């Protein structure tokens, strides 16, 4: 009887210790592309804070300053340090195959967040978490499809003069948004893209590019900027040219940063498709699941909205970025 009691107590001790046992300490390397936009800063802070809040993780952060070679170096240093997992946003889609293969050989799982690598290299990473960039481009096109008619700008026949300021050439965000917008554009032969150039996702380049567009063609009717940062820069150029953004030029954008939302409320941007940068909590959840031996889905989507004059003012006070 005494023996049974001792065994029972021992088992209870074992169970209670294992029930509260702390998770294994994991080191995670995070390779960010840089800090080209307000959006990017919000994304970086979200990921850093989420890992900081979870003491069983040690985060090694590396800022590539918009240089792919810096990112590849950072990934190699994570591999050399034998981190448990890599969280990675790709500056552009191509050129990471060899280093991702090295991570795979070293059995280090790679979780992409925000921007993915090209399809040919997707087998080398575990999953991608973030926005569907193709859908974002489609949503922009669909908003225009409905609203250009409502505004009396599109009669389905007369040519409409479009300008597009793209994000960083070759980045997942730029490639996807261009593709998605192209799906809708293809249904509207009278939407003429007369001007298209990259503004590298920065406000200053957005302004410069729009200045050049307007010098060449003051009759632009619709502007699509691939992010709000460039959109706000472009709006400065439009105002300096004596025109009213949102009125003389219909302006659609992506991100829904506070600055962008304020521009909708001021009537200077007509529509913004949301791209959510607050990926930290989801990233921590995914890495925790991985550590616990769970299988991650091949794609982890973020839920995103679309804003225009009907709902931006109500949403503005709760915007976090
Ligand atoms: O990859 C997401 C894009 O990159 C965001 O739209 C933009 O603001 C950022 O710089």
Description:
By secondary structure, the protein is α/β, with parallel strands linked by helices. The protein is 43% helix and 19% strand. Helix 9 (258-265) links the parallel strand 9 (250-255) and strand 10. Helix 7 crosses helix 8. The longest helix is centred in the N-terminal third of the chain and has 19 residues, at 2-20. It starts with a helix and ends in a 6-residue tail after the last helix. The structure holds alpha-L-arabinofuranose (AHR). Residues 36-37, 39-40, 114-115, 173, 201, 227, 229, 254-255, 275 line the site of alpha-L-arabinofuranose. Alpha-L-arabinofuranose is lined by residues 36-37, 39-40, 114-115, 173, 201, 227, 229, 254-255, 275.
Question: What ligands can be seen in this structure?
Answer: alpha-L-arabinofuranose
- Can you give the mean pLDDT? 95
**CA-based shape:** elongated
End-to-end distance, in Å?
A: 64 Å
* Count of alpha and pi helical runs: 11
The topology string of helices and strands comes to HEHEHEHEEHEHEHEHEHEHEEH
Tally of discrete structural domains: 2
Regions with pLDDT < 50 over 5+ consecutive residues?
A: none
Kindly report the spatial arrangement of strands forming the biggest sheet.
2-1-3-4-5-11
CATH architecture of the largest domain: 3-Layer(aba) Sandwich
Q: Helicity level, as a percent range? A: 40-55%
CATH topology of the largest domain: Rossmann fold
What characterizes the major β-sheet?
6 strands, parallel
Full CATH superfamily name of the largest domain = Response regulator
| The CATH class of the largest domain | Alpha Beta
Structural class: alpha/beta
Beta fraction: 15-25%
Provide the gyration radius in Å: 24 Å
The count of strands amounts to 12
């Amino acid at each position: 009887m005494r023996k049974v009691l001792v065994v029972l107590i021992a088992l209870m001790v074992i169970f209670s210790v294992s029930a509260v046992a702390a998770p294994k300490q994991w080191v995670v390397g995070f390779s960010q592309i840089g800090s080209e936009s307000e959006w990017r800063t919000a994304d970086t802070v979200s990921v850093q804070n989420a890992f900081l809040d979870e003491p069983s993780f040690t985060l090694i952060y590396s800022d590539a300053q918009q240089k792919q070679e810096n990112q590849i170096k950072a990934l190699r240093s994570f591999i050399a340090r034998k981190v448990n997992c890599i969280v990675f946003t790709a500056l552009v889609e191509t050129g990471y195959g060899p280093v991702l293969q090295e991570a795979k050989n070293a059995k280090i799982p790679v979780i992409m967040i925000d921007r993915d690598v090209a399809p040919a290299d997707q087998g080398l990473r575990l999953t991608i978490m973030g926005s569907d960039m193709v859908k974002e481009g489609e949503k922009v096109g669909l908003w225009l499809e409905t609203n250009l008619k409502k505004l009396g700008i599109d009669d389905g026949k007369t040519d409409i003069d479009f300008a597009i300021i793209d994000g960083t050439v070759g980045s997942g965000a730029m490639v996807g948004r261009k593709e998605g917008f192209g799906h809708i554009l293809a249904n509207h032969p009278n939407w003429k893209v007369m001007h298209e150039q990259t503004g590298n996702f920065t406000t200053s380049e957005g302004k410069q590019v729009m200045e050049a567009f307007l010098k060449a063609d003051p009759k632009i009717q619709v502007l699509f900027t691939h992010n709000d940062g460039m959109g706000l820069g472009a709006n400065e150029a439009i105002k300096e040219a004596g025109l009213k953004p949102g009125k003389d030029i219909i302006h659609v954008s992506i991100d829904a940063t506070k600055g962008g939302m304020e521009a909708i409320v001021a009537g200077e941007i007509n529509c913004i498709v949301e791209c959510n940068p607050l990926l930290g909590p989801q990233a921590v959840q995914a890495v925790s699941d991985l550590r616990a031996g769970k299988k991650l889905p091949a794609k982890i989507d973020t839920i995103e909205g679309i804003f225009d004059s009907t709902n931006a003012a109500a949403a503005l006070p709760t915007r976090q970025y």
